[in-house]
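Changelog-adjacent note: as of this version, every example in the card shows the full chain rather than a window. The one below runs 542 residues end to end.
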Amino acid sequence: KDDEKTTKILSDLGFDASNFKHTKKIPSIRPVSSNDVFCNRDLRLGGVDAIGFDMDYTLAQYHQPAFDELAFNGAKEKLVHVKGYPEEVLDWEYDHTFWTRGLIIDTQRGNFLKIDRHKYVKVAHHGFNRMSARTRKHLYSKAFNKVISFTEKNFVNMDTLFQYVDAHLFAGLVDLKDEEEHDMLNMKTYEEIYREVRECVDLCHRDGVIKDEVARSPDPFIVKDPQMLPMLRRFKEDGVKVFLLTNSYWEYTSTVMNYLYYGERVDDEKQKENEWLELFDLVIVGSCKPAFMLDPYLNLFRVNPQDGRLENTDGVYEIDALGSDGASQFLSKGKTFQGGNWLHLQALLETKAGDEILYVGDHLYSDVLRSKRTLGWRSAFVVPELADEMRVFNENLPLYKKISTLRRMRDELDMYADEVRSGVLGLGDEKQEEVLREIAEEEAEIKGLLVDLANEWHAAFHPIWGALFNTGYQDSRFAFYVQNYACLYTSQASNLGLVSTIRSFRASADILPHDRLMLDEENSAFVQFQDPFGEEVESDSL
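Full-length structure tokens:
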């Protein structure tokens, strides 16, 4: 059946189908999986000279909630014993399921917002409590002379899974402050509370609370991915330069990468060998993204893999001074570094243009938006939530189709009401008012059902925040940035190993509403335009 269908398509296009024996083998129904790599902007992997990876939540995925609880519990201790917060904070339990990526934290008001691509706030919580529509609109609706951009300093974007811990602690402290039973909280603003939460969580990533526990027993925290090593090796074997660029420092990077390389915890002596380095041409830790992509004056240090000692380098000046093969000579002294900036990276990779580099990461701002907008790198975004989002979408497809049908019906009912108001139907004034009243009643009934179905649809994805890629009926802010800045996106980095290193990705055609309506031949039909005087106008003259 597939062969017959493809043969007919080729024949209709004027081809001799007998010359397309392989094209005829293409299945008529395309299988779609969360292991696919999806494309927003055409990209030819064969034109990529270097591919880079972030580590945390990219090459290394973490078990939830076990991994987050390390930071959550450590930050609780610091808030109480260092910052002086109430003892009851120590009794709190972490619930990562309350949160989703793409939210915005209003640190000034203690609110959590989900907005659409047009910056309309559709869902809002104050602490853990849902905000009424009236309050939400009062705080965040657009005023005539002021439109909130959500880039102001009091807004924090939840672009990475690491921020769930910050959000959970901050929401709890907002609710605790609102009880007005603790003098020390009454003396602090929401912004001050958020800042101290951030300090405590960040300290957990630096003082050993997390890395020491992961180093002692990686199994409960790090997800093993059997496809990762074959992917990295295949890129190298096919002549693509492979680099690791991570904000984690050397000691933790070595621990995680050794575990991923061997599939188990190794002893200290074995870890010092760092055999995993054979997977990469260049490794940069402690990169301080996004500053790495913005500040050309950041210094580059060479890391001694044996003991983590840092050595000064003169960076690009040293590379240039070594002559035509300066990058090779520079790397021969060691290929592990800390800090630096994009100028060092591109000099060491010997790339001439940003679009020769593909960077794979999970952080929407630091890994994707900034590398694309500032440096012109090609980008691949890792969305671990994609598997669940696609599964739920597929399970609720009949519901989605009902919603689409009702929205179209409501739109066409409005168009019909306009015809009634225009007088072209020849109704008398009294009859016209009666018809319009009946239309309004029908529209209200459809709207009521739509609200219920839309709530059911979003609740299927997440009971509080709804679908990751949608806000109401619109694309979410998260989806907007994925579409505009991620050339590719997929559920896990190793999915890139399921395609060849010369694969070409092609984006689907962009389409505006008028074209979308005309493509829907089952429900729409193009009619010739008529001017106000009833004279038909040729489409060529429009």
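Structural remarks: The chain has a mean pLDDT of 92.
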